[in-house]
Write a structure and sequence with these properties.
172 residues, alpha+beta, 34% helix, globular, disordered N terminus
């Protein structure tokens, strides 16, 4: 995958080995402390799948700079994947696929890309935090991603825009 310098939320749940045990233990501690009776949520890393980007974007989340992300609605539909719901928890992993934080979604909106607000673009926490940086990088990324499916980018393509808050930072 080309490195566009922006995140792609990886919708991959770690399911095997020591990592899953660590993720489950982290969730179980959190759930017990907060009296939650929920299954272990999805766990994934931001980025292009590289350790470096997973760590960089994860650090932006830990610092509270990155509080938003977006994905193509078309890709969700093509992959038969449901998108997050407000109140849902997920576990963000670092570049080594280890737990980093637990997030909770605070807002989910389906918005045409050319209608995304400057505020949302800034919430993604990347580059110079400007709308123009966000738009240019996302146009490049979505052109590439949709091309994998034989589809073309369109300025009015629908995005699943997700805001979240960090509810716990992992301490081992």
């Amino acid at each position: 995958m080309p490195d566009f310098g922006l995140e792609q939320k990886r919708h991959v749940t770690v399911k095997e080995g020591v990592i899953m045990g660590e993720v489950e233990q982290y969730w179980n501690r959190f759930a017990q402390q907060h009296q939650l009776v929920l299954n272990t949520p999805d766990s994934w890393m931001f980025g292009d799948g590289t350790e470096q980007m997973g760590n960089e974007l994860g650090e932006l989340v830990v610092k509270g700079i990155k509080t938003g992300t977006c994905s193509s609605l078309q890709v969700y539909e093509l992959e038969h994947e449901s998108y997050p719901e407000v109140g849902q928890y997920d576990i963000v992993l670092d570049g080594q696929n280890r737990p980093l934080v637990i997030i909770q979604y605070t807002n989910i909106e389906i918005i045409p890309m050319n209608k995304v607000t400057e505020e949302f673009a800034k919430s993604e926490g990347e580059g110079d935090l400007s709308y123009s940086y966000w738009y240019e990088e996302h146009e490049r990324f979505f052109t590439w991603e949709l091309g994998l499916y034989g589809l073309s980018f369109s300025p009015d393509m629908l995005l699943v825009c997700q805001n979240f808050k960090v509810v716990d930072i992992y301490k081992d």
